[in-house]
Amino acid sequence: MKTSDFFRQDKPVFSFEVFPPRNIDNDGAEKRVCETMDVIQEVQPDFVSVTYRGGGSNPAKATIQIASMIKDRYHTESVVHLPAARLDRAAVDDFLARAKDAGIQNILALRGDIPEGGRYSDDFHYASDLVAYIKQHGDFNILGACYPEGHPESPDALSDIRHLKTKVDAGTSELISQLFFDNEAFYKFVDRCRFAGIDVPIEAGIMPIMSTKQAERMRAMSGVELPAKLSNILDKFADKPDALRDAGIAYAIEQIVDLMAHGVDGIHLYTMDNPTVAGRIIEATRNIIRS
Ligand code: FAD
Fold first, then answer.
1. What is residue 263's DSSP assignment?
2. Which of 9, 128, 130, 214 is positioned for an S-S bond with 84, CB 3.0–4.6 A?
3. Bridge partners of 13?
4. Which pLDDT belongs to residue 4?
5. How much is the pLDDT for 273?
6. What is the DSSP string of 135-184?
């Protein structure tokens, strides 16, 4: 099934993101994802997306195999991530052929991060190039990434929105947002998108903060703001890991409740492959996300 069909239902879409193992050929490589899936399955998510780990031993194989396993074993629709920054057309063709053989219908088309001192793929400079290419080379549903607080490389919010419109016009049917901690920033971003004529569904990306180190890493990598309320939590519980984890989960739950009350198109939960945390969020929001 194409994930775009879920947005035609009369309720918000609820999805999760999982990591494939670094080495898919190791014995028991699927174990961690299965532990997370066993928990996630309880709320019957609309779909689960599988990241592409550039540093893994065979990232394309790992992503496709896990996405296929999620469909077959858990009867849940899956999405494969495909960052093209270091791939040429032949590698993308190979990925698309393997995804098709595995029955995968949904691809999150990404540019990927550019390595320090590295260069763009000669074939795919931006995600919009990859979207246009996939559109011409198969019957896939294409998703894209978006950044409520702006992509870190973007000089300003306006050009980011302009490039996002190009990506959507190239054939992207829905967007998943970068994580954020300030719901107001997300609502303003959605308003700007609608004003710019970007009318595809936009899912809100939520990641529970588990440690001060993780929060700082997210801020450094993604440029997301830590609102004063979250900074206070991080300061207060910096030396108390259990308390900080509980507070991070509570913060994410509060964000989800507010987003649902606001009538968002959907919520995409970054699980970080932590079944315990995913389970606690599901437990607290079960009736809200399925209302
Ligand atoms: P693009 O849409 O191409 O945008 C990148 C930058 O280029 C932006 O600043 C944009 O404004 C600018 N731009 C776009 N078009 C033009 C143009 N024509 N001219 C000038 N500038 C332009 N990475 C992974 O490696 N693996 C993953 O599995 C993965 N999953 C992700 C999932 C989500 C939901 C998100 C939000 C990100 C994910 N990433 C992943 C990270 C992503 O690859 C990086 O954020 C990357 O830096 C940008 O990818 P993009 O597809 O958004 O790029």
1. T
2. 130
3. 266
4. 97
5. 86
6. HHTS--EEEEEE-TT--TT-S-HHHHHHHHHHHHHTT--EEEEEE-S-HH
For residue 200, give Cα distances in angstroms to 88, 140, 171, 196, 223. 28, 16, 10, 12, 24
The verdict on whether 42 is a catalytic residue reads no
d(Cα 219, Cα 180) in Å, to the nearest integer? 10
Q: Which atom of ligand 1 is nearest to the CA of 54?
A: 25
- Quote the tokens at residue 161: 């929105």
Global pTM reads: 0.97
What's phi and psi for 285, nearest 5 deg?
-120, 0
Ligand 1 and 165: CB distance under 6 A: no
The model's pLDDT over 7-25, given as tens digits with 9 standing for 90+, comes to 999 899 999 999 999 999 9
Report how far ligand 1's centroid is from the alpha carbon of 116 (Å). Answer: 15
Give the three-state DSSP class for 269: strand
Q: Which CATH architecture has domain 3-289?
A: Alpha-Beta Barrel (3.20)
Cα(184)–Cα(188) distance, rounded to whole angstroms? 6
Q: Which of 15, 64, 110, 267 to mutate to test the pocket of ligand 1 (most atoms within 8 A of CB)?
A: 110
Q: Is the CB of 145 under 6 A from ligand 1?
A: yes
Q: What pLDDT digit, counting tens, does each position of 99-117 carry?
A: 999 999 999 999 998 877 7
d(CA 262, CA 187): 9
Does residue 176 line the site of ligand 1, with CB under 6 A? yes
The amino acid at 136: Q
pLDDT in tens, 133-175: 999 999 999 999 999 999 999 999 999 999 999 999 999 999 9
Tokens of 174: 């829905």
Residue 80 pairs in a beta bridge with 50, 107
CB 52 within 8 A of CB 81: yes
Q: What is the CA radius of gyration of the chain?
A: 18
Residue with tokens 């969020």: 281
